[in-house]
């Protein structure tokens, strides 16, 4: 039976969380909103409309949600040519593929943003599928992104390990029934990730690769 290694991308495989936080902070500032960057960081990992709703609340002028998201996208796009993967990311994905895992990306990125992220990851030869925001009707913490990612390669939830960096990632994996594994490189505290359901927490992809023989990937049969 197929086993799926599903990975979130931003903050998990590619070092982008703080770039997103700065871009959202500036987009809010340009629209006349004062939003602390720490609050933006905590909301990362959710689709843009959900992030705006969480940070501005239900009493906002929802007609401005679209322009806010557009402003963030324009600001963030200035970093595309400089995006960098975390250490040992290509080696981790290739090691899992060599062990028979189907490697799948689950991300809210689409279009040119997704292309930039894949260039940074530099492991297209072993990525079996990518589930993007275009494929789902509801983003994390709903289970749909994880479910669609694993179903794309024919893997059941109990044979899927989902690796992410946010509370929303862990909640989505738990809701789907996949094995939730967290990394700290996105900047979320270990305690928050564990409380959200992370079975194991690693510093970054490099530590996960180094400890792969003792990781949850070795317990899924």
From TrEMBL:
Pfam families for this protein: Hydrolase
InterPro entries reported in the protein's UniProt record: HAD-like_hydrolase_sf, HAD-like_sf, HAD-SF_hydro_IA, HAD_sf, PGP-like_dom2
GO cellular component, one term: cytosol
Record flagged with keyword Hydrolase: yes
GO molecular function: phosphoglycolate phosphatase activity
Keyword NAD: no
Protein name per Swiss-Prot or TrEMBL: HAD family hydrolase
């Amino acid at each position: 039976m197929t086993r799926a290694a599903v990975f979130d991308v931003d903050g998990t495989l590619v070092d982008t969380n703080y770039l997103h936080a700065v871009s959202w902070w500036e987009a809010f500032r340009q629209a006349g909103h004062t939003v602390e960057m720490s609050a933006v960081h905590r909301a990362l990992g959710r689709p843009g409309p959900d992030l705006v709703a969480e940070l501005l609340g239900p009493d906002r002028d929802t007609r401005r949600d679209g322009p806010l998201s557009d402003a963030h996208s324009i600001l963030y796009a200035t970093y595309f040519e400089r995006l960098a993967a975390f250490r040992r990311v290509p080696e981790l994905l290739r090691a899992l593929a060599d062990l028979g895992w189907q490697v799948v990306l689950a991300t809210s990125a689409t279009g040119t943003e997704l292309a930039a992220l894949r260039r940074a990851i530099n492991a297209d030869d072993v990525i079996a599928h990518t589930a993007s925001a275009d494929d789902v009707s509801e983003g994390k913490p709903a289970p749909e992104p994880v479910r669609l990612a694993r179903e794309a390669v024919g893997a059941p939830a109990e044979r899927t390990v989902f690796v992410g960096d946010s509370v929303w990632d862990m909640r989505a994996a738990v809701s789907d029934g996949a094995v939730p594994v967290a990394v700290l490189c996105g900047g979320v505290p270990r305690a928050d990730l564990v409380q959200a359901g992370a079975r194991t927490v690693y510093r970054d992809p490099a530590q996960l690769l180094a400890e792969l023989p003792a990781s949850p990937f070795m317990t899924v049969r």
